[in-house]
Amino acid sequence: MAATTVLSEQEVRQRIQRGRPIALGLGVVGLLVWATGLATNPKLAMQGYHFGFFYWMGLTLGCLGMALLLHAVRGRWGLPLIRIFESGAMVLMPVMLIAFFPILYDVFVVHGIFEWTHKEVVAQDPVLQSKRPWLNEPRFAIAGILYILIWAYFAKKLWDGSSAEDAAGDPVKAEMLSRQRTAFASFGIIVYMLTYTLAMVDWGQSLQPHWFSTMYAVIMVAGFGLNALALALYMVLSWRDLPLYKPIVYHEGYEGYRRDWGNFMFTLSVFWSYVAFSQLLIIYSGNLPEFTQFYLRRNMGGWQYIAYLIPIFQFFVPFFWFLAPRTKWIPKQLLIGVIIVLAIRVVEIFWQIKPAWSETLSISLYDIAAFVGLGGLWFYFMLGNLLKRALVPRNEPRLLEVAH
Amino acid sequence: MAHADTTPKLYGLMAEFETPEQLLEAARRTRDAGYRHFDCYTPFPIHGLTAAMGVKEAKVPWTVFICGLLGAIGAFTLQVWTSVVDYPLNIGGRDLLSWPYFVPITFEGMVLAAAFGAFFGTHIYNRMLSYYHPVFNVPQFVRASTDRFFVCIESKDPKFNRDETYRFLQSLNPLSVVEVPE
């Protein structure tokens, strides 16, 4: 009854092994190009780095969130994806922790990213002075490291639990282990949401330190959850003709995994739209200067064109695309929708982050270099994690049935 | 005085099966034999039955979709008409066409119309709220809700012929084939 005998992983592993050096190469080249910026224009370079860090950290957290959710609800739809989420979440330690230190370098030395680290600005600004108890450098550093350690703890526990199931030997014991973990994962979701909210105050909202929004963290949770799901589906659907994933992707029992996947893409896209639009509506209704500055900045100077793209490609197109039953039946069509979402996610995060420093639409070489560099490293380690274990859970009766 | 014909008209012929597999096979062969007006009756949903019967895409989802779209367009248009054209009011100096305000109502209009589409669509297409159906004239049919599977070919099918259809249903190896009076 062993899954390994039925589901051959050979070809997928070869693909991953071929992809890793490319990712590493992109990562090293990207970071080297970015490092030249440290000498010529350190502030601009650090801003580019923050965009890259924010995106890849968000994606890591999206993977962690999806892993927590899957371990809590034990959904059948997620079984072929869970190892990808766990591998993504494990990039937290040590890679994302190390990637956080350049941000600290900026906070203490360069002062390119956060306005509230400028002593002379704060000295003339009573509002920022009143925010000093939270927005100060040592607190920022300690809290940031603490968030990452807490998340890494949950990522590691889920990873270990999942590995223990593989080692359990028989499906009954694996099932017991999996059930025992639901309480831990549910608790993890609470901790995740609380720490995530604080981290988003630090890393996202404090870029415009006068501005704040209670919806911001939820927008990011939904958006990066969608992002992580899209990434996992991109991988699985790209490998749909390889022996391991072919019976999974084309499985037609319960009308197929891909129907659930498409529906979940639809759900997360709509949820993101709901919270993102709510923030706009609340700020638009309130019409107060400290709130409207966020959208004012992002709705002029060229940024408005990107502002139009985002609802089109992250709401309207996915809405109709994933609503159609045909999309969920034809893997290639599902894959196209997933790629659209992956592309617009990068654009949206750029639009969320970059206008904090630039009133007109602009993109610097360092934005691209840091994004590619961190992304290359992220994939190098994520794919490495993926190769460490079976690519899909063993001893899982709900997954074994597709092999028959 | 001539009496009216009191012999009941024939609604169709019904075959009774013991397993879902037999029913699937019977449904497939009935479709392949060219029958179009026939239906299957099962105690629980059977995966692949609609495909075996050759049922085309369901109408309810499209009805819901179109109703939802019309509801959204209608609600948005209503708000534009009232607050831009018919009774323009300056509220806090905002644009008359303050579309973010219109979105919640547009959404609600879509949900309401889509729900009506689902409710009435289901009723109309499934001919619900009909108090009589001929299949219940067959005594065995009570078991359709517990452990038996039925195929009924209706007499309105152009290919229907009492003797030929009877022989065809017999060829499917059912437990029994019975006439269903109107």
Question: How is this fold's topology laid out?
Answer:
The complex is a heterodimer of chains A (404) and B (182).
Chain A: H1 3-6, H2 10-40, H3 42-73, H4 82-89, H5 95-110, H6 119-123, H7 126-130, H8 137-167, H9 171-203, H10 216-238, H11 246-249, H12 257-286, H13 289-297, H14 303-323, H15 325-329, H16 331-353, H17 365-387, H18 397-400
Chain B: E1 10-17, H1 20-32, E2 38-41, H2 49-53, H3 60-86, H4 99-125, E3 149-154, H5 162-170, E4 176-181
Antiparallel strand pairs in B: 1-3, 1-4, 2-3
Report on this model:
The complex is a heterodimer of chains A (404) and B (182). Chain A is mainly α and 404 residues long. Chain A has one domain (3-114, 144-403). Helices cover 76% and strands 0% of the residues of chain A. Chain A contains 18 helices and no strands. Chain A has helices spanning 3-6, 10-40, 42-73, 82-89, 95-110, 119-123, 126-130, 137-167, 171-203, 216-238, 246-249, 257-286, 289-297, 303-323, 325-329, 331-353, 365-387, 397-400. Chain B is of the alpha+beta class. Chain B has two domains: 10-55 and 136-181, 2-Layer Sandwich (Alpha-Beta Plaits); 60-125, no CATH class. Helix content of chain B is 45%, strand content 13%. Chain B contains five helices and four strands, in the order E-H-E-H-H-H-E-H-E. A four-stranded antiparallel sheet of chain B has the order 2-3-1-4, covered by helices on one side. In chain B, helix 3 (60-86) runs antiparallel to helix 4. The longest helix of chain B has 27 residues, at 60-86. Chain B is elongated, with a radius of gyration of 25 Å. The model of chain B has no long low-confidence stretch (mean pLDDT 90). At the A-B interface, helix 12 of A face helix 4 of B.
Which regions of chain A have little confidence, pLDDT < 50, spanning 5+ residues?
Answer: 1-5
CATH architecture of the largest domain in chain B: 2-Layer Sandwich
Helix and strand sequence of chain A: HHHHHHHHHHHHHHHHHH
Distance between the termini of chain A: 11 Å
The portion of residues assigned to helices of chain A is over 70%
In terms of quaternary structure, the protein is heterodimer
What is the C-alpha radius of gyration of chain A, as a whole number of Å?
A: 22 Å
